[in-house]
Amino acid sequence: MSKLFIILGSALAFLSVALGAFGAHILKAKIGEQHLSVFETGVQYQMMHAIGLIIVGILSMTAFQGQSSLLNWAGWIMLIGIILFSGSLYMLSTTQISAFGPITPIGGVAFLVSWLLVIIAFIKG
């Protein structure tokens, strides 16, 4: 699992940079400032949690292997958080369909749970 989290985190970080450039150079002329800000928030949180996913992968390979179950859960929940939080913000900002808005907090809760699991793994490890 640890290598998979590092690969997924790296791919999501790559995608975050690409999406950030897309927003700055293409979307800027097509959507309003408010929607661009929403899009940029998605990019920022995706990058932060892509790095978090890489960290989870590295921790899984180190002394915290005894807590691999907690770290695996943290990694998968963090990935779900990226998809729900950032994905819903991308959809909301580019389509202006407000139905995507209520999905964002679910992704935020997933982020909180994933980081809490990392804390617990450290405490137990």
What do you see in this structure?
This protein has 125 residues and is mainly α. It has one domain (2-124). The chain is 82% helix and 0% strand. It is built from 4 helices and no strands. The chain has helices spanning 2-25, 33-61, 68-95, 104-124. Helix 1 (2-25) runs antiparallel to helix 2 (33-61) and helix 1 packs parallel to helix 3 (68-95). The longest helix is centred in the middle third of the chain and has 29 residues, at 33-61. It is elongated and about 50 Å long. The relative contact order is 0.16. The model has no long low-confidence stretch (mean pLDDT 94).
Q: Quick recap of the structure?
A:
With 125 residues, this protein is an all-alpha fold. 82% of the residues lie in helices and 0% in strands.
Provide the fold topology.
Elements: H1 2-25, H2 33-61, H3 68-95, H4 104-124
- Mean pLDDT metric: 94
Q: What percentage of residues falls in helices of 4 or more residues? A: over 70%
| pLDDT < 50 runs, ≥5 residues | none
Rg is 16 Å
Q: Tell me the distance between the termini.
A: 18 Å
Anisotropy-based shape:
elongated
Order of helices and strands: HHHH
Q: Kindly estimate the percentage of residues that lie in beta strands according to DSSP.
A: under 5%
> Number of DSSP strands?
0
What structural category characterises the helix and strand content?
mainly alpha
Tell me the number of helical segments per DSSP (H or I, 4 or more residues long): 4
Total tally of structural domains: 1
Q: Please describe the biggest sheet, giving its number of strands, its sense, and whether it closes into a barrel.
A: none
